[in-house]
Hints:
- The protein is an alpha/beta fold.
- The protein is built from 9 helices and 9 strands.
- The protein has helices at residues 3-6, 28-32, 86-90, 111-121, 138-152, 165-174, 192-198, 213-221, 234-243, and strands at 12-16, 40-47, 53-55, 124-129, 158-162, 180-184, 203-207, 225-229, 247-250.
- It is globular, with a radius of gyration of 18 Å.
Amino acid sequence: MSFLKLFQKADLIASHRGSHSLYPENTFSALSHSLGHCDFVELDVQLSSDKVAVIMHDDTLERTTDIKQIEIYKTRVPYKLSDFTYAELASLDYGSWFYTNYMKPEPLLSLKKVLKFIKDNSLYINIEIKDIHDSFSDEEVISNIHQEIKDAKVKEFILLSSFRHEYLSLSKSIEPSIPTAALVSNVHPKNLLDYLKRFKIDAYHFNNKLVDKKTIKKLKEAGYFINIYTVNDSIRRQQLFDMGVNGVFTDLLE
């Protein structure tokens, strides 16, 4: 079943950055413990300085790693992820910051490991491509990610999304069969339907604060799939489903 066929189902639950209310976000633990508790997982991808695709939300490393504790990296402020090689990133701990009662180190999660896991478990994944155009060309970013997907033979399990919509149209030019989703936070683009058509978008993901029934109806009638972030309240979740929203991203899995 392709991701677009998955969207034919109602009331979809997406695990936001993996099961990150219980495990450190964007780690293998957060990914693996989402299995069986959601319809698909959302993770964030960026490139290391040597262009290896890694799973990380922030463009800097201090919030979710132990980098500030490592002496040899103290001169590397502001700890921008794209300034570090894959080997350097792999030397960091991505878990202990999360736990208060005990230390549990977590290794770096690569896109390659994610794709193997989803293939082994037939798990659908929304890969959010972070906007890193100030460090890499759009072509470098998209061609790298598509090569990983091609090598893993998992395109039927993939949805690509981004706040940088230029990534999405470029993705379609490389592999039209992989669906894409435009992410929006603060305001809808002008002439929304024409805008989505221009970028060859399949789905539209936007902030819960932007939801209104008129917009949902317009998008549904035009054939777009709609997913809303980040919804941690069960009552609000049901309201959205009743409006016709396909799915919600949540931090809290049942």
